[in-house]
Design a protein that fits this description.
heterodimer; A: alpha/beta; Rossmann fold; two-stranded antiparallel ribbon; 14 helices; 16% strand; B: eight-stranded mixed beta sheet; 17 helices; 8 strands; elongated
Chain lengths: 317, 383
């Protein structure tokens, strides 16, 4: 399995897997990466669904739009967003099974029942993945409804819990409808033609260490195909000769400026050092995103990032 | 009161709870406070329930077994930190905490074994809503009761909602108290169950949920809940004790954030939630603040001078340097604006700015300069 996954990853794929999951350590910029990726794919002409799991509307707020909520909303040409939550996903699942809105409402809009459902472990994660599965399969008159589904997953720990939910539930419950869902999900997640997991990191020790853990879990335990590594907030190198020139020939303030920039260079080199802990193969295909300094991160900054990473993204995909 | 760059707020408390969203350095801050306290002579315990167990790694601890482990003083001495009192690290294990609860309960031995062997319990005790938080608070209560420590620093799991943590004991009770559950686990008495609670018939409810999850699943779940309910009284007593501990004046909440806009918003959301619960956070830590560059001239002047000096060089090289100068200033400027806004917003809570460290903080050597910011001997300085 592992060999097959390694063989697959990094290799050019023409159409790309439909489902692309984005995760990494908390605070590394998962939502920024997922949203930028969705913009790129939509601009390339792919009908894209950007699905947020437990995000609390971060995607729409980044895009400068009003919250979309749990309904799939078209926000730009080819780009749809949805902010999933377990409660809405369970309701939707029930609607799919029963097809009678009033009947479903009678049961699922009941506060006692809702409290009960919230207590069933892993049900929320499972049903959200189930929703993703449904849209991955969904067809309209032209073929698949979505060419790309980008899942902005929670941070590493919770993302792993989510991706483990199908096998966890499969082991714990007797045969029945719940077990059937877990089978469909496991097939989808383990199919390298249909699903890829993108990893996001910053060039620092702890996020890199967590990326390695994630890589291990994805390949050895979950059997997920690893897609691309996104390195966020990378500092651009400065010419050392110029810094030396500033320090040697400048007055006192310029010497201080040179010292600030030398410290920045030191940080950049430490970034390079940290990245060396990652497997060569993964680094070779990484998408590098420079650090952007802005007061507030909004649509403009995203578009700038999208333009900067487009060549790297298209190179291998 | 201004923004502080050094803080010793922890001296007044027995428990410090660090809360915040993921990725702001909550674990690092918790470790730094624990180090500073042990250095100052307090017998200290650092606890983390972060799913990635970063605090333990940062303190050189690699086993997760629900036990208190001492941090080797030699390792700290090498990093330049001399402890005056022992420092321990504990990573609560959710499953073990629940197992211990069952083993300590007054249930008959056979019943305990039955519960420990229940398939749902085995797979899900650590996945139950709020179980991580519950285990942490339960363990916190135990170690606090032991009297072995002068200070316990607890690093909470990252969450979107600070109240999740406070409500964890209540949620486990809620789970056991749930009327629907009571009714589900005793289908025989279903006819006497008041229809109005659910609004639909029992049989209908069973059929509906059953066709979603499978009837057998529901029955196994019911069996599990039924066994767990027998421990209800124990849970209720403990939950009340824990609840008062979380609100006791010996406990300080501190919120950790970064200068980034979305992180600040998330922190303020926490802050307001806690205040609404009658808990005023004692300190807000803004981690990784870029200090204003000490250039002695305005950025415009620095750029003009640098441009002139670098003129003979490759224009591309010069452009990069000038952009970097702008960035260095801009990033510090944004951070100082962010601090000003926060200061007004969280007043009278102490606002502490922790500067971006020269080195990546991920081990004891990296923690050494950071812990100094929580030490009294540096003396409080104000900006």
């Amino acid at each position: 399995m592992t060999a097959r996954l390694w063989a697959c990853y990094g290799q050019a794929y023409v159409s790309g897997p439909r489902l692309q999951i984005v995760t990494g350590k908390g605070g590394v910029g998962k939502t920024v990466v997922a949203t930028t990726l969705a913009l790129l794919e939509a601009e390339a002409g792919h009908t894209t669904l950007l699905a947020e799991a437990h995000g609390g509307g971060r995607v729409t707020s980044l895009l400068g739009l009003p919250a979309s909520g749990a309904e799939i909303t078209r926000v730009r040409p080819n780009l749809f967003v949805v902010d999933m939550n377990p409660r809405a996903a369970i309701h939707e699942y029930a609607r799919l099974i029963f097809r009678f809105e009033s009947l479903v409402n009678a049961v699922f809009e009941n506060a006692t029942v809702r409290r009960f459902l919230r207590l069933i472990p892993s049900l929320g994660e499972l049903v959200m993945l189930g929703k993703i599965w449904f849209h991955e399969q969904e067809q309209n008159e032209h073929g698949p409804r979505f060419d790309r589904i980008i899942l902005d997953a929670p941070a590493t720990g919770h993302a792993l819990a989510m991706l483990r939910a199908p096998s966890l539930v499969a082991a714990a419950v007797p045969p029945g409808p719940l077990r059937d869902i877990t089978r469909n999900l496991s097939i989808l997640l383990r199919d390298p033609e249909r699903t890829a997991l993108h990893l996001v990191t910053t060039p620092e020790e702890m996020p890199v260490a967590e990326t390695l853990e994630l890589l291990h879990a994805a390949q050895e335990e979950l059997g997920l195909r690893v897609g691309r590594l996104f390195i966020n907030q990378k500092l651009t190198p400065l010419a050392h000769a110029a810094l030396r020139h500033l320090a040697a020939k400048g007055d006192v303030p310029l010497q201080a400026v040179a010292e600030s920039l030398a410290l920045r260079e030191q940080r950049r080199m430490s970034q390079e050092e940290q990245l060396r802990a990652l497997p060569d193969k993964l680094r070779a295909h990484a998408v590098v995103m420079p650090r952007l300094v802005t007061a507030a991160f909004g649509y403009e900054a995203l578009q700038k990032l999208a333009d900067q990473i487009r060549p790297q993204w298209e190179q291998d995909t | 009161m201004g923004t502080r760059h050094v803080s010793t707020f922890w001296r007044h408390y027995q428990i410090v709870v660090c809360a915040g969203t993921g990725g702001v350095g909550k674990t690092t801050v918790a470790a730094a406070i624990a180090l500073a306290a042990a250095r100052a002579g307090k017998r200290t315990l650092a606890m983390t329930i972060d799913p990635s167990r970063r605090l333990a790694y940062a303190l050189g601890q690699h086993t997760i077994d629900n036990l208190e482990h001492p941090v080797a003083p030699e390792a700290l001495r090498e990093a330049g930190v001399e402890l005056q009192a022992p420092l321990h690290v504990l990573v609560p294990d959710v499953r073990r905490t629940f197992d211990e609860l069952i083993e300590r309960s007054p249930l008959a031995a056979a019943r305990k074994a039955q519960l420990l062997n229940n398939r749902i319990y085995q797979h899900f005790s650590s996945a139950l809503a709020g179980s991580q938080e519950y285990a942490a608070i339960e363990k916190l209560y135990q170690v606090h009761q032991s009297g072995h420590y002068d200070l316990i620093v607890l690093d909470t799991p990252p969450s979107q909602n600070a109240v999740d943590f406070l409500e964890a004991p209540g949620r486990v009770l809620d789970f056991l108290e749930n009327e629907t559950l009571q009714w589900l686990v005793k289908p025989a008495s279903a006819t006497r169950f008041p229809r109005r609670t659910l609004g639909v018939g029992t049989a209908f409810f069973w059929r509906t949920l059953g066709s979603m999850t499978g009837g057998e699943t529901l029955r196994e779940l019911a069996d599990f809940i039924l066994s767990f309910r027998e421990m209800y009284d124990g849970f209720r007593t403990r939950a009340a004790q824990v609840r008062s501990l979380l609100r006791s004046p010996q406990l300080a909440f501190t919120l950790v954030t970064s200068p980034a806009e979305n992180q600040r918003h998330a922190m303020l959301h926490f802050y307001d939630e806690l205040c609404a619960q009658g808990i005023i956070p004692r300190a807000v830590m803004v981690n990784r603040v870029h200090p204003m560059p000490p250039w002695g001239v305005s950025t415009t002047d620095a750029i003009t001078a640098a441009t002139r000096l670098l003129e003979p060089l490759d224009p591309e090289v010069t452009f990069q340097i000038i952009e970097a100068i702008k960035e260095e200033w801009l990033i510090a400027h944004h951070d100082s604006q962010a601090l000003k806004e926060l200061e007004a917003r969280v007043h009278p809570t102490e606002l502490v700015a922790l500067p971006e460290q020269r080195q990546d903080v991920h081990d004891l050597v990296g923690l050494a300069p950071l812990q100094a910011l929580f030490c009294a001997d540096r003396g409080p300085t104000k900006s």
